[in-house]
Every structure is written in C-alpha cells, then in structure tokens.
Amino acid sequence: MKNKTIVLVLLVLIVFGGCASQKETIVFDKPHLQVPKEEVPRVQRKGSLYSIRGGSLFSDKKDLQIGDIIQVSIVEELKSDSKNTRNTKKSNNTSLGGGIFAGIDGNDSGTGSAAIAKNLNRELGVGFGTRTNNSFTGSATSKFDESLETTVSAVIEEVYQNGNYLIRGSREIVIDGQKQMLVLSGVIRPYDITPDNTIGSSQIANLKILFEKFGDERDSLNKGWGTRMIESIWPF
Length: 236
What we know:
By secondary structure, the chain is an alpha+beta fold. The chain has helices at 2-19, 113-124, 216-221, 225-233; strands at 69-96, 128-159, 165-175, 178-188, 198-200, 205-214.
C-alpha cells in the first residue's frame, strides 16, 4: 500500500510538472526565402570596369564565399510597459408575487366575488424572489527593459542567387562558473558590409538571437519549479 502511494504521488508530480510553463526558445532553421529565378547570362564587354550584376557603381560589394567570417555588431534593445485593468459587475433582481385570482368587474369592496378572490389568494397566492450579484476585478502590470550590446563572429553558410548571404555565429563563455551562450543567424546583403568587414544587427534580415545565462544569476531571476507547478494548476 505504501509503495502504491509513493508511485501515485510521483505520477501526480510528473503530470503537474508537465503542465508547468515551458521555457521559450528559438529554432534556428534556415529561413524560407523567395529566391529569384535564374537570369540568362549577359555578355559583358571587354574592358568594362562596371559589373552588370552590380547594384551600384559607387557601392563596395564584398564578394565572400562559404566559410568566410564577418563581424556582427549587435545593438538591440527591448522595452515594454503595459498596464491592463478589468472591472465587471452584474446584478439581477427578479420577483414574482401577488394572487392568481382577481375580483370581478373591479369590485374590491371586500364583498361578493372580491371577497372570494381575496380568500383564495390568501390560500393559493404565490410569492417568489431572487437576487444575484456578481463582480470581478483584475489588473496586470508588465514592465520589461533589456539591452544587448556585443560583437560576435559569424560564418557564411550559404550564398543565394541574388548575392545575399546566410550567416550563423555562436559564442560560449564560462567565467567563474557563470556561463553565457549567444547564437545568431540571419540573412545579409553584401553591400551592407563595411570596409572593416563588419555589419550591424539592424541590417540583418530574419534575425534570430538567442542569449542565455546559466548559473547563480539565472537561478536568482527565475521562479522555483514548485512555484511554477502550483501556479500552473491553481484554478483561482
């Protein structure tokens, strides 16, 4: 009997633990891009200094290959400040009363048919009443302010037909038992790469950044698993 109780408690904890809120993450899949159809090769005149496929005569296009490395300057800031309040109230008052018989010809003198109706109403009269009151008040306040400024190296993983590059980079640092992990991916244009082989995060399309911390700092900012489990099943 004791073993069955232990097994039942473990099953309940597993089920409730699965209902607890899961940690959000990012899937770094290759983005679905609409690649332009292949163009018919054009004949370039000999001696020309301007490429027909070039986007601009005055721009500096970086012709990089798969496996080349570029520097990504990450400057991102997320801010959110919202406040929601909801107040609802509902009341209902219903009453049903009075006799089921009335006097004839409006005779209410207490004699004749009116007296008979009054006596019947006294014995058979119906009275019923209900009153309900419902109210709900809720409020929520959310404030979020996070900024990230760093530099990470990324590798060119694919070159598209239109000349854009798919890049991906990662970095892991462990200092005094505190681990930080940064993963980045996105699509860039060769014309946005600066002469010092750097590109800003604001110029990256389909940008995905995952920045995680492991250690005492992360544990101090997160709720315990018991608190999360109770909040996930608390009905009120």
